[in-house]
Structure formats: structure tokens, C-alpha cells
Amino acid sequence: MSTEVSKCIADGRLLNKGSKIIANNEEIDLRVLFSVILQGKWPIMVITALFAISSVFFALMQPNIYRSDVLLAPASEAQGGGLGEFASQFGGLASIAGVNLGGKGVINKTQMAIEVMKSRKFATEFIQKHNLLADLMAADKWDISQDKLIYNPNLYNDKTNTWVREIKAPFKPKPSMQEAFNVFTKAVTVNLSKDSGMVTVSVDHVSPSAAQQWATWLVQDINRMMKDRDVAEANSSTQFLNKQIALTNVADIKTILYKLIEQQAKTIMLAEVRDEYIFKTIDPAIVPEVKTKPKRALICILGTIFGFMLGLIIVLVRYYVKGR
């Protein structure tokens, strides 16, 4: 028994001694580390200063970006009433006629409008309709005194309205709609709040006036496009239903078809009298007075920190390589 106790005591002393050795080694390593850093303080300071100065110049070279937001609420659906009473009974007949009775499989019009705004087709038509290609692809700065865009002379000559950028095939001096769409999706964002159901359309641009104007046009164009779609669909359905009425002699079927035609007439009437067809503007877009980005102070801080870390790594790696 005494032998086992003696062995345990010896093992404990050995363990304590090993812990002291490890602690001493860690202390020595830390001392060496700080010594290496202290010896390489000048390279670290120089690298940090270079990155700090470079980040300042980089931040100052970035143009101010302004954001204009418009808050929208989905327009209330006023087409449901009469259809709901017989949609379950005659949904098959209506679907043959191409008439939407608002069943479970119906896609929400608000969500559809949002997806349309994000689509390449809508963006292309929007850019071409309002002649925004130069403002989107070549705008460099904004002259606050004249409220005028300044274009990059290496890309676009605004005096002759010609593109002068030098680029390799298959691209051309004038940007394609695919290029424009990629830039457009970064400048325009559409967000739907799941809690409130509100939709926010945001536009970022170097010109605050352009940002406000684009946001306003986006709402107007999506309302007009969705309205034209529903009117065209209602007119087509009405023509089909009138043909079916002429082909049948069954009074009950004729009654149903006339009710469907009545609903299409209501759709057309509501579309004609309602400018804000899909979205109602709750808070219109305004010309922003304060820039959204860049965050110049943050850029300078991150650049300085990165420079310090890089200098530290270089000094430690150099010491390690020399030590080997």
C-alpha cells in the first residue's frame, strides 16, 4: 500500500514538473513572439500605413450612391364576389374558356407582379422605353450644382450619343441588354415583407434625381403592364364565351356563360378606372439628400486592419523561414 502511495506522489510531482515546463515553454514562446514583432515593427508600420493611405484614396474615388425607396401595398382584389359562388361547380368550364376563378391553384397576383419586375423581359423593356442605357451603364458622377449626370468618357460620348468603350468580342461598344440586365438587378431591388405584406422598391444610383424617377417609373410600368395583361385576357375570354353561347341551346349553360362574361366585363371596367391596378403607393419615392454608400470610414478602418494583419504575417513568416 505504501508503495502505491509513493508511486502516486511521484507521478503527481512529475506531472507538476511537466506542467511547469510546458508553462515555461509557452512563456518563452510568447516572449519570442513579442520580440519578433517588436523587431519587425517598422515593416509592419510601413505596410499598415501604405494600406491605410491606399484605402483612403480608394474610398475617396468611389462615387456617392443615393437610394430612393417607394413603399407599396397590394391593391385589393375586387373581382372575387360573384365568381366565388359557382367557381367550385363550374371551374372546369371556366378553365376551358381561359377564365380565372380564383381557385386554390391561382398564383397570387402580387407575387406574380414582383417576379415580373425581376424578369429580364421587364427590365429590357423598361430600359429601352425610358432610354436608360447610358444612365445605367456609363454614368460616372453627379453634378450637384446642375443636377446633371457626368458620363465616363472612356465608355460613352454624351455629345454625340455614341459608345466608345473598347471591349473584346463577342461584346460590342454598345452594351447588350444582357449586360444591362446584370447591372440593373444590382441597382433595383424589390422586397416583400412577409409580416405586413408591403412591397418596397429601391433604386440605387449616382444621381438622386434619377433614383427617384426610376422608382416612380417602375411602379407605373408594372401597374400598366399587369393591367394590360388582365384586360387582354378578359377580352380574349369574352370572345371565346360569346362563341360558345352561339353554339349551345341549353339555357343553363348559357346562363353560366353570361355570368362569366359579366365577370370579364367587371375586370375590364376595374382595370380602366384604376391606375394603381396591382400596387397602391403608400409612401412615394423622394429625391434623397443623403448618400447610402460608400461607407468611407468603414473602408478606411478595414483597409488599415488588413494592412496591419498582413504586415504581422509577413514578419512572422520571414522569422520562421530564417529560423529553419
From TrEMBL:
Domain Polysaccharide chain length determinant N-terminal as annotated: residue spans: 26-129
Keyword DNA damage listed: no
Principal subcellular localisation of the protein: membrane
Subcellular location per the Swiss-Prot or TrEMBL entry: Cell membrane
Topology in membrane: Multi-pass membrane protein
Domain of life: Bacteria
Protein's name according to its UniProt entry: LPS O-antigen length regulator
Organism: Shewanella morhuae
Taxonomic lineage from the root: Bacteria, Pseudomonadati, Pseudomonadota, Gammaproteobacteria, Alteromonadales
